[in-house]
């Protein structure tokens, strides 16, 4: 067993800054019979996770397989102080991620998300497949990873082609999910082919996954009389389809490794993923009484402190308007490694292309808004005497398309000098173009007979589009150059200091228009080209100390930021009506003007952290802990107005305090135990324009998260072994504010119990897999609709019910 010289420690009384890099790459270290340590590249160089002075959760390739981790939800619930909410692009497949209470409800994300060296939106959900490992870095990574890594960074590290050996793996499975009427299917394959022995190798992967829908959609058989005889959730006069929110996901990759001499390695890669879904995983929460006309008892009114949840898996509607969409993305990358006698030069070039196309049923909301003056819509209490219920004039969907591309280039050099001084320096550039965020293409949303009812047949917009409810098209461009570096100096063999700095610049430009009934009396609202430009620095300071090669403490102070931007302007609306946006803006803050809704600035935070990483009993016990105090200011927050439009404002400040504890132990030669606990107390300290009460919790952040697992290995014969894994996760309650930040909705706590029992001989494996074995169904977040929420009926993201299946893996 090899050991590096101790390089990390505490200086008496003063603990500062985060993330110091090692002097040299190391291989995984483990004592005979001890736990295996995962090699990470969190600091842009290979080193054992136990030598990196920051709080990290890792999942090795073996762990990913043993715990049946195939998607984001599977590993996200197993990371202390990581939270998420399905509110980003692609409502059927995406979410926003928060770490240590730093959540990105508005603006760009607050968590960096990477595939290898390529930064990507945290809303994508790459298939967990053919990965070497996953690294979750807690705390701001603003020096090495830059913008958006405010709370932390999630990194998916792929397998690279093997230059020397042919190999292939085929895997397939079938499973059943509660409340579905058909099975789930999954299949994937990997083949590694050395084309020129030890010089050129090709690696190909492919996968297909079908998950049956566990929802039903029910609509009125006769829409012409729906307003009188066929309310949502009634049991008669309806047609129903099942398998709603089923999702097809497929994709793959092709990578080539070329060894150009002894020093240079070139790796081009193409990766793609397609997801198509025939509905959204949204359950209805009926909270408004309907005078008993065809309605069951409502779920009940909700208050600030009562959890908002439902087990209703039927989406009841007036009209037959199918929902659903697709999320397609492609990633092209080229990585070059050049090893020299004094360090390694790495160049990473990537191009990312994504299109999210979704269709939502807006008919009931628009109908209620249009007809409420002439008759009574079926929402809220019953009509006044003599007022008829409305007969629906027709049905209509609203479509949202988000289409964008980004180019990213990073070049860096990590030294391997012989003295006490080491460094990493680099330059970064990204160029983004598209219709995101809050700058999407909305194909015209229309409603039957709208012009006849409101304007005598005259289109209500400058484009002459008949019956237009709303249309919007905004284009956004963003350029982000940066230079960065970290300097590491061994003051003594045990004590090391780290200083880091990143200079950045962000320039964002946007232009577009909005028009239609929703914008008010103004025919077309033009958003003239607007530009914001900011620059700044991100520093980091850290000290670490090794008492022994296996016991290290560290302290750090680090800064994180996320850039500002330009968004669609809020239309003024019609004075004196429900869509008087200008009046509502003035009521919120008399100093706010319509033009103030066009742009927002960067926000930033400082993280102060103390931590320890320790291994005991010849690496049979690993115990790591960290405590943090984060101060967040000028928070980018979405301000939702009663007129249905929202904007982003730099409003208020927050503080998050807490810590993490990770324990892994080899209890016996056959039994491994793991435990992870996180606590984060994230509170608003300044309210700003949001009307949030000082001391109220930051949205979408549970205070406690925890996970535990037992892994038992048992030899069956000379060739066959069994590996049994049972894991448990807990996520405490939190508040979701996608629709009403003034009165946020409480998401209940939930628990997940999973198990996998596998039998294999090294080349063949059979496994029985169970997920959510207690069949717990919970509200992950309330939906932020493309149009607007139907009054009295929030739509809640519900997790997948109990799923049990079998899998077979064959290796060649």
Pick out its properties.
single chain, 812 residues, 22-stranded antiparallel β-barrel, 5-stranded mixed beta sheet, 6 helices, 44 strands, globular, disordered N terminus
Find the count of extended strands (DSSP E, 2+ residues): 44
Our estimate of the beta-strand percent is over 45%
Q: Spans with pLDDT under 50 lasting ≥5 residues? A: 1-29, 290-296, 376-382
- What structural class do the secondary elements suggest? mainly beta
Q: How does the major sheet shape up?
A: 22 strands, antiparallel, barrel
Tally of contiguous helical segments: 6
Helix proportion: under 10%
**What gross morphology would you assign?**
globular
The radius of gyration over CA amounts to 27 Å
Give the distance, in angstroms, between the N- and C-terminal Cα atoms.
31 Å
**Arithmetic mean of pLDDT:** 85
What report would you give on this structure?
- The protein is built from six helices and 44 strands.
- With 812 residues, the chain is mostly beta strands.
- The protein is globular, with a radius of gyration of 27 Å.
- Residues 1-29, 290-296 and 376-382 have low confidence and may be disordered.
Helix/strand layout:
Blueprint: E1 39-40, E2 47-48, E3 56-60, H1 61-66, H2 72-76, E4 82-85, E5 96-99, E6 111-115, E7 118-120, E8 131-138, E9 152-158, E10 167-177, E11 184-196, E12 200-211, E13 215-220, H3 226-229, E14 238-244, E15 247-260, E16 264-277, E17 282-284, E18 314-317, E19 324-340, E20 343-361, H4 363-371, E21 397-415, E22 421-434, E23 441-446, H5 450-455, E24 468-490, E25 495-515, E26 524-548, E27 551-562, E28 565-566, H6 581-588, E29 599-600, E30 603-616, E31 621-633, E32 636-640, E33 646-650, E34 653-666, E35 671-686, E36 704-715, E37 721-731, E38 734-736, E39 745-747, E40 750-760, E41 764-771, E42 779-782, E43 795-798, E44 803-811
Parallel strand pairs: 6-9, 13-18
Antiparallel strand pairs: 1-2, 3-8, 4-5, 6-7, 8-9, 10-11, 10-44, 11-12, 12-15, 13-14, 15-16, 16-19, 17-43, 19-20, 20-21, 21-22, 22-24, 23-24, 24-25, 25-26, 26-27, 27-30, 28-29, 30-31, 31-34, 32-33, 34-35, 35-36, 36-37, 37-40, 38-39, 40-41, 41-44, 42-43
